[in-house]
Amino acid sequence: MVSSVYYFDYAAATPVDERVFAAMKPYFSEHFYNPSSPYAQAVEVRREYETAKQMLAHTIGATGDELVMTAGATESINLAIGGFSGHKITTAAEHASVLRVIEADGGTILPVNKHGQVTAGQVDSAIQEDTELVSVALANHEIGSIQPVREIAAMVATKRAERLSRGNRTPLVLHCDASQGFGLIDIHVGRLGVDLLTLNAAKIYGPKQVGALWIRPGIIITPRIVGGGQEAGLRSGTENVAGTIGFAEAARIAADKRAGETKRLGALRDTLERTLTSRFSTAILSGHPRHRLANFCHISFPGIDAERLVFILEMDNVLVATGSACAANSGTRSSVLTAIGLADDVADGSIRLTLGRGTTDASVAAATERIIAAVEREATRTGVQL
Amino acid sequence: MVSSVYYFDYAAATPVDERVFAAMKPYFSEHFYNPSSPYAQAVEVRREYETAKQMLAHTIGATGDELVMTAGATESINLAIGGFSGHKITTAAEHASVLRVIEADGGTILPVNKHGQVTAGQVDSAIQEDTELVSVALANHEIGSIQPVREIAAMVATKRAERLSRGNRTPLVLHCDASQGFGLIDIHVGRLGVDLLTLNAAKIYGPKQVGALWIRPGIIITPRIVGGGQEAGLRSGTENVAGTIGFAEAARIAADKRAGETKRLGALRDTLERTLTSRFSTAILSGHPRHRLANFCHISFPGIDAERLVFILEMDNVLVATGSACAANSGTRSSVLTAIGLADDVADGSIRLTLGRGTTDASVAAATERIIAAVEREATRTGVQL
Known about the structure:
The structure is a homodimer.
Chain A: E1 6-7, H1 18-24, H2 26-29, H3 40-58, E2 67-70, H4 73-82, E3 87-91, H5 96-104, E4 108-110, H6 120-126, E5 131-137, H7 149-165, E6 173-177, H8 189-192, E7 196-200, E8 211-215, H9 241-279, E9 284-286, E10 296-300, H10 306-315, E11 318-319, H11 325-330, H12 335-339, H13 344-347, E12 350-354, H14 361-382
Parallel strand pairs in A: 1-11, 3-4, 3-5, 5-6, 6-7
Antiparallel strand pairs in A: 2-8, 7-8, 9-10, 10-12
């Protein structure tokens, strides 16, 4: 199925890499033991589980015991943000899961610039005496813009020290949702300076419903799912052995391919964008021109109905997204596009193409040609000037 | 590995059935699309996901839209119980995940009889004007006793109606953790009369980290994981398509095999217990003699160190549990055995054998012989009279 279509929605879902699947396979029916059981076969499964966590942690410069395995980025985000009380801060361009948790607590939602970014100064100004948590994505899930996380982290650290020196012992931490960035951005938690980091296997050719939350040692968070006390009491339930082993393998492969894929996909994406904007002078690219994920292309054709475009392209075997999958799910206009100030008719004419390992020169050429034909056809049909 | 050992710990973990694995396999790398994406391939994945939920729901006499898919029984339990505020009631023999959530809210923990059971009358007496939830397992995870859930459900319904007639509109619901019972007990939510039911794929030869919570229509619960709004807003995060399809297939197979396996395993278990108690007159069986899961054998050898026994049996290729996996994890004495009033030296001499699809006459004979030899050896070594 994948081979007969041109798939440009790698930000929504990635196929599980065959090596990842091979690594997971023995843990379904053969090494199926409960890692908490006492006999050698189960102890061996626990050892392999812990080794996988260690390998996964190494790819971000951390250790296995600093990771809490979860059922995906949404759970990690809920655990991270919900693990704190007090005032919280995030940006208007965040994923729904971040916004919903912070809104529930009545936090501050910072406006973003036209690329969907905030500055460290903006965050600084929003921090109150009772602020406990700031949450900023590494890269935006719709337009790919990369946030200045390192600068924000340095500012938060300074603020925390300053607050402590005044005797205010309220915790102040920075959570970073790296779901979209992990595949193509080399993350080292020490250098990045964050306190909590959300990772997602499903976006890096690993299994769905597998995620992790990295927690800087010394940070105390309240668990969201309690019971048997697994994951150091922070997330109970029998461990996802197969999923974690698959995630570690996916992260290893991603690290191997990162530099090459970033260069390769960036060049393909640039060609795609150049060709489309040359042909359509009214087309608008969103996302930061340079500080953006190499595989993201978000393009708007003002006056064109993107939902129809997606449908026409699908008939032509080119699969692209309108906004994000989650926004599509709820049937509402993307909050990210509103936040970056796109007019409604521009936002409604937006498609997102995200490239991945299966993307080639030929698939980009085919997609470009078919997008041009589809946009021209729709413009003719509706009388829109391009 | 499984074929060379005699596995008697099916309550801790079950191998994934090969048909279940075959059903899941296409959804990792081939039909990997995000069910929320708009194109036909993804819509098809969503349809298959919804069909799987429908099939799973049918096995308990429900419909697919009444199920919330989760990452396992622990999450289902946290969602069910944590979804209510007010006073809560459970029993001292429940799984750690039920106890931890209810204890956190300062609820009532009812004592159990020597078989680990409560009566509807006991629950009735504990219900206060502000009680919102009662949680009782279908079958105990350590000794297999079946609770009188139907009687408790009828009482709760009467109480609710009576309370409502007096103008008290506080919700009152019954949650049932059916993790252990689902494989061998035919569950029909309508006939059972519960309001919330926790199911677990990992105990019925399905994948780990896959669970469901059935919610009776009309019951409003607060979600624990928010974000993209999947599962009708009750559990956000990209759906576990492969896991859910695997769970549905596992439930279908379990339904097919239920009657036959209950009879077959019950006979094997009875032979095992008869042989062991004939040989050791001081041995004590726990769990209700009749109202008990057919595959559970919980036996205590007073004065014998069960941890050593498990180790010796493991050397002899017989895998059994001491207490439950979760209790073993935390290294403390099982709270179930304390709740049913077993003296410490009896509790510490307890092993749990749980039978399953791989159990045969030959494996029971081999296990029996090796358990007798191990107990005799330990008794001789320590001078314990049997």
